[in-house]
Amino acid sequence: MADKLISKIPEGPLSQKWTKRKSEIRLVSPNNKRKLEIIVVGTGLGGASAAASLGELGYNVKIFCISDSPRRAHSIAAQGGINAAKNYQNDNDSVYRLFYDTIKGGDYRAREANVYRLAEVSASIIDQCVAQGIPFAREYGGYLANRSFGGVQVSRTFYARGQTGQQLLLGAYASLNKEIAAGTVKSYPRHEMLDLVVVNGEAKGIIARNLVTGELERFGAHAVVIATGGYGNTYFLSTNAMNSNGSAAWQCYKKGAYFANPCFAQIHPTCIPVHGDQQCKLTLMSESLRNDGRIWVPKKKEDVEKLRKHEIKPSQIPEEDRDYYLERRYPAFGNLVPRDVASRAAKERCDAGFGVNETGLAVFLDFADAIKRLGHQRVAERYGNLFDMYQKITASSPWEEPMMIYPAIHYTMGGIWVDYDLQTTIPGLYAIGEANFSDHGGNRLGASALMQGLADGYFVIPVTIGDYLASKFAEPKTDTSIEEFDVAQKAVQERIDKLFAVKGTKTVDSLHKKLGHIMWEYVGMAREEEGLKKAIKEIQELKKEFWSEVRVPGTQYEFNQELEKALRLADFLEIGELMARDALNRQESCGGHFRVESQTEEGEAKRDDKNFMYVAAWEYKGEDKEPELHKEPLKYEFIEVKTRNYKD
Amino acid sequence: MEFNLKIWRQKNAKEKGHFETYHISGIEEDASFLEMLDILNEQLIREGKEPVAFDHDCREGICGACSLYIDGRAHGPDDHVTTCQLFMRHFKDGATITVEPWRSAGFPVIKDLVVDRSAFDKILQAGGFISVRTGSAQDANNILIPHDKAEKSMDAAACVGCGACVATCKNGSAMLFVGARVSSLALLPQGRPEAQKRARAMVAKMDELGFGNCTNTRACEMECPKGISVEHIARLNYEFLAAKFKQ
C-alpha cells in the first residue's frame, strides 16, 4: 500500500511550487460552497483560523472543542512569538532564509516544498493578525518590533509581550466569532471527538461525546479537518495543557490514516524544574528569554555542593568560576542554539554532576548582565510577565537571582501523515498544525508553531480543500443514520462500557504517571536500542494493567472528567508504544531524536542520511498487531544537506 | 501541610448543591492549589467516592479555564493570579479552606465547581471582533501604532476570559470583561470603524444575558488575575455614549 504515500509535491522551481499548485486546484463556486459541510476538530490556531476562513468562503462549518470555549485551546499558552520573513529589520532576512533555517533546524527531515510554502505565506500572517487588531509590540515610531529566537541569526520574531499565542488565538477566535455570528460556523464546545466515520474509504463524519450530558452524538460532513494538536502528554509531565491529548489523531490512525515520525518529540530547554512527585504539569519559560538571558552552571563541583545545600547564592559565584557552556560549545549561536541542542547540553552538564538544585536537574538562566546593559524598565517590558510567573511558581525573584531551568517535553513534530495539500491517506480527511507532521522535521524552531498553525489555517487549507470538495458538491449531506455511523458509535460505546466494567483500584492519573516515567526514561532525551525494547514491553504490560485495574468512577451520562482522562490514556498507551517503535527503527540521531549509538566524538547528534533520510509513516494493522512501516523518501533538490553546525 | 477543605458539591445543574468537608494531609508547600485538588481527587477515587469536578487546563494562568472561589475571593487569597497559579504556601498549615464555584446568574453550575461560561462567547460573538476577511489585509507596517497605545491595548487584551470579574461583582456585571475587549480594539486604528457599533452590540448582549450593571465598586479590578483596570470600562462607556448620541 506504499502507493498511498503520494506527497503531491508540484513540479518546478521551489519558489513557484505553491503558485503552481494553486493554479491547478479546482475552485468551488459560491453557490456550491453553500451546499458543502466541513467538520473542524480543535479550536487552536490551526482549527480556529481554518474554520473562520472556510466560513468566510461560504462553506458550512462545524467546529468542535473539548473546553468550555474555543479560546482555551493550548495555542493560548505560547509565549515568545511568531516568525515571519518580513525583513523589517533590514538584517538580510528573506523567505529563503526562513525556509533554510527551518529545514536546517529540523535536521533535514522535513519536506522542502512544504517548508518553503510555510515561509512564503508567513508575511501574510502578520498582515492578517495586525488587521485583526492584535497588539504586537511596537517601536516608538509605531512600527512593528522584532526579536530573535533559537537557531537563527536574524530578528524575525513578532511578539505581544510574553503572550503572543494568547493574542494570536484571540485574533483567530474573534474571526471565528464573526463567522459564528454570521451563521456560517456552528460551534460545539465541550464536545470530544471519539471516532472518525469513514464511508467507502472517505472521511464523512465523527462520533463525539457531549462532555456535559455524556451522550454520544453523530456529525456528518463532506470533509473533516483534524486540528487537535500534538501528543506530548504521553509523557504525563509536559508543558502541554492538562487536557491536550492525541486521541482524535489516534482514532484517525486506527481508521487508516498513516502516522508519521511519531518519535520526533521536542524537549524544550527552558522549563521550570520538577519540584516533587505531586506535580502534574510543567511550566515553560519562553525561549525569548534566551535573547538576553545567559545559561550557565558552576565550573567547580564544590560550588555545586554549596548551592545544593543553600550555603551560597548563585550571584555569589564569581564570573571566572562560571561555565557558560552554550557560549563555550557553540560560539556562533551561543545561548540561541536550537532547542534540541540546548536541551542535550543541559542534560550533559547535569549528568556530569553540575546540576544546581537539590535534584541535580537544573541549570541557571541569568539576567544579571541584561539588567545591567538594558536597565530594569526595558527588561521588564520584554519579560516582565515571565519574571512574575516564575516568581509566583518558585517564590524566587529573577531580578535578584538567576532562574533555574531544565528541559521538558513541549511539542511533537510527528503527527498524522499528510500530502502537500495537507490531506491524509484517507481522502476527505485533513490534518493541520501540530496534528500533522509536515513542516518541522526532527526539531521545530522557536516561534514556528504559531506560524505553522496559522499558515495552515488561514492560507493553505482554505485553498487545498477545494480541490477535493470540487467533486463533492453534488453529493447530498451525509446521512448520519447509515450503518457506518452505527458501527462507529457502537465501537465507542463498547470502549466506554469496557472502561466502566473494569472496576479496578488504580486511578487514571497513577497509571498515566507510570507511562510518563517509562517514556521519559527510555524515549526521552537519550534513546538506545535496549531501552526502547524495554519501553515497548513495559508499555504493553502497563496497557494490560490499565485495562484490568483502572477505576473510572461515576457514569457515562454526566460530566465525568475521569472518564475523559481514561479514554485519553487508553490512546496515550498506544501512542507511546508507537513512539518507542519508531525511535527503535530510526537508528540515527537527528533533531530531538537522539540515539546514544549514533553520536560524534564531541557528543553531537550524528545523522545517517544514507539509511534514514525518509519520513517513517506507520499504518495501523489491528489490535495487538505490529504496525507496518512505509517510507516516504525525502528529496532535497534545492538545498545542500549538511551536518548541522551551530559552532561557527 | 494539611487542610480541611469545605467544597461545594452539586451533582448537576438541576440538583441542589451542598458543602462537604474533606481532610487532606501531606501536601508540599510548593504544590499548587489545583495540584492539591488533584491529590484530593486521587484520594476520593481510591475511597470509592466521586472526585470533585473543576475546570482547568493550561495551569500556567493563561487559558482562563480555572475558576474557583476560595475563602470568599475569586481565585483565592493571592493577588492577580488565576487559581492554577495559587500555591499552598499562601495558606496556613491546618487551615480550613472553603471552595465554591463562580456564583452568578450568568454562569449556571454544570457540576460541583464547574460553571457554564458560554455567555462570554455569546457576548464576543455580538461584536468583539474586527470585520476583516482572511486575505484582505494590507502590509502590517502600513498601520502605525504608537508604542504606548499598543501597550495600553495590550493591557486590555490580556483578559483571559475567566469570569472572576463577574463572580466578584455584587451586581454580577460583566462590564470589565466587555470593557477590556471594546477598549483594546477601540485604542487601535484598525478597531475604530466599528468601535461604537461594537460597544452598543456587546452591551446589549450582556444585558440580554442577565448580567448586572456597573456601580463602580471596582471589585472587579481588584480580583482580576490580569490586573485589568476599570479605565477600560470608562472607555467602553465613552464609546457606548458616543454611539447613543449619534443615534
Key terms:
heterodimer; A: alpha+beta; five-stranded antiparallel beta sheet; 38% helix; B: alpha+beta; Ubiquitin-like (UB roll); Fumarate Reductase Iron-sulfur Protein, Chain B, domain 2; two-stranded antiparallel ribbon; 12% strand; elongated
Describe this structure in words.
The complex is a heterodimer of chains A (648) and B (247). Chain A is built from 18 helices and 19 strands. By secondary structure, chain A is an alpha+beta fold. A five-stranded parallel beta sheet of chain A has the order 5-2-1-9-17. In chain A, strands 11-15-14-12-13 form a five-stranded antiparallel beta sheet. The model of chain A has no long low-confidence stretch (mean pLDDT 96). Chain B is an alpha+beta fold and 247 residues long. Chain B is 34% helix and 12% strand. In chain B, strand 1 and strand 2 form a beta hairpin. Chain B is elongated, with a radius of gyration of 20 Å. Chain B starts with a strand and ends with a helix. The chains are: A alpha+beta (648), B alpha+beta (247).
What are the low-pLDDT stretches of chain B, counting only 5+ consecutive residues below 50?
A: none
Q: Domain count of chain B, please report it.
A: 2
What level of helicity do the residues of chain B show?
25-40%
Distance between the termini of chain B: 61 Å
**CATH fold-level name of the largest domain in chain B:** Fumarate Reductase Iron-sulfur Protein, Chain B, domain 2
Query: What is the arithmetic mean of pLDDT of chain B?
Result: 97
Strand content of chain A: 5-15%
Shape of chain B, please? elongated
Please write out the topology.
The complex is a heterodimer of chains A (648) and B (247).
Chain A (H helix, E strand, L loop, with lengths): L16 H8 L5 H4 L3 E5 L3 H13 L2 E5 L17 E2 L11 H11 L6 H20 L25 E2 L5 H19 L2 E4 L2 E9 L2 E9 L5 E5 L2 E4 L20 H8 L4 E2 L4 E7 L22 E5 L2 H8 L13 E2 L1 H5 L9 H16 L8 E4 L1 H7 L1 H19 L8 E10 L2 E2 L12 E3 L17 H21 L13 H20 L5 H15 L6 H21 L11 H25 L23 H4 L1 E6 L8 E6 L15
Parallel strand pairs in A: 1-2, 1-9, 2-5, 9-17
Antiparallel strand pairs in A: 3-4, 6-7, 7-8, 10-16, 10-18, 11-15, 12-13, 12-14, 14-15, 18-19
Helix pairs in contact in A: 3-6, 3-13, 4-5, 5-13, 11-12, 15-16, 15-17, 16-17
Chain B lengths: L2 E7 L8 E7 L8 H14 L21 E3 L2 E2 L21 E6 L7 E3 L2 E2 L2 H8 L21 H11 L6 H5 L6 H12 L8 H14 L10 H5 L7 H16 L1
Parallel strand pairs in B: 1-5
Antiparallel strand pairs in B: 1-2, 3-4, 3-5, 6-7
